[in-house]
Design brief:
CATH topology: Rossmann fold
Shape: globular
Largest sheet: 7 strands, parallel
CATH superfamily: NAD(P)-binding Rossmann-like Domain
Distance between the termini: 36 Å
Bound molecules: nicotinamide-adenine-dinucleotide
Helix content: 40-55%
Number of helices: 8
Number of domains: 1
Strand order of the largest sheet: 3-2-1-4-5-6-7
Number of strands: 7
CATH class: Alpha Beta
Order of helices and strands: EHEHEHEHEHEHHHE
Mean pLDDT: 97
Length: 259
């Protein structure tokens, strides 16, 4: 059962421990910062080398406990070590923000199967590996928890040259729904946040030149999203204010998928 807890709209996370996967920069970095502002202790897990520096900066700025762990979500041993290290550091894990991401654009008739498999290994299977390991820890703790994965507007519409990325994010939406169904009895909410293009390394890699101009023109809000706007949606799905929402894929797209 996912319990009712009275809420006051403060989105408070004090006393909670969170892992942000893909938290060394981009949307993950903004999410880690927002969680820290709301009082959570934060583990930053990412395959980048700067995890420890990113974690130390948060601790210094917001006075919360942090830990930085190098983790490649395609490796089960990294996943297991990360969950064990965070449990040891914070005693429990209450929130998982799960957003490692990879994109390589190519037309469907040319893309290599190895590139398709890399998308699936990181964006879908890697996210599942971490969700499963953290959910098992949450089940052991017996207090429920929150899992929020970052999906994409590509879940809802076809986008040119996005076949590998879209296959992986569609698989992720399937995972979110099934895990939400199965883990509700343990008090665990599982949700997605589906952004439009966001001004990050990944957003800039995928959207340059004329396609960028055309895309901005196609978004009713007439701009790309900023990382804090996505982090705010992740925060909402990470606190008690959203306890009655599970299995959802919340679109944050300035209206792009209305049409
Ligand atoms: N930027 C966009 O336009 C956009 C739009 C929709 C969805 N998203 C999704 O948002 C999430 C965050 O992306 P971002 O825009 O912040 O991009 P980003 O490139 O800044 O962040 C992605 C992070 O994932 C990490 N990562 C990649 N492979 C990993 C692996 N194997 N193990 C662990 N970490 C790994 C990277 O090191 C990086 O820190 C991704 O899941 C992405 O698919 C991004």
């Amino acid at each position: 059962m996912i319990e009712y807890r009275k809420v006051d709209g403060s989105f408070d996370l004090s006393g909670k421990s969170a892992i942000v996967v893909g938290g060394a920069g981009g949307i993950g970095g903004a999410t880690a910062e927002m969680y820290a502002k709301k009082g959570a202790n934060i583990a930053i897990a990412d395959c980048k080398d700067n995890v420890k520096e990113a974690a130390a900066r948060l601790a210094e700025t917001y006075g919360v406990k942090t830990i930085g762990l190098k983790c490649d979500v395609t490796k089960q041993s990294d996943i297991d070590q990360t969950v064990a290290a965070v449990t040891e550091a914070f005693r429990e894990i209450n929130i998982l923000a799960n957003m490692p991401g990879y994109v390589e654009l190519e037309s469907a008739e040319c893309i290599g199967v190895d590139v398709i498999e890399k998308h699936l290994a990181i964006n879908a299977v890697g996210v599942f590996r971490m969700s499963q390991a953290v959910a098992n820890q949450m089940i052991k703790q017996g207090k429920g928890g929150k899992i929020v994965c970052v999906t994409s507007q590509a879940d809802f519409i076809a986008i040119d040259k996005h076949v590998g990325y879209t296959m992986s994010k569609a698989a992720l939406v399937g995972m979110i729904k099934v895990c939400a169904l199965e883990w509700a009895e343990f008090g665990i909410n599982v949700n997605g946040v589906a952004p439009t293009v966001v001004n990050t390394y990944m957003g800039e890699k995928a959207w340059q030149g004329q396609v960028k101009i055309d895309m901005i023109n196609a978004i009713p809000a007439h701009r790309f999203a900023e990382t804090d706007e996505i982090a705010a949606a992740v925060l909402f799905l990470s606190c008690d204010e959203s306890n009655m929402i599970t299995g959802e894929d919340l679109v944050v797209d300035g209206g792009f998928t209305i049409k």
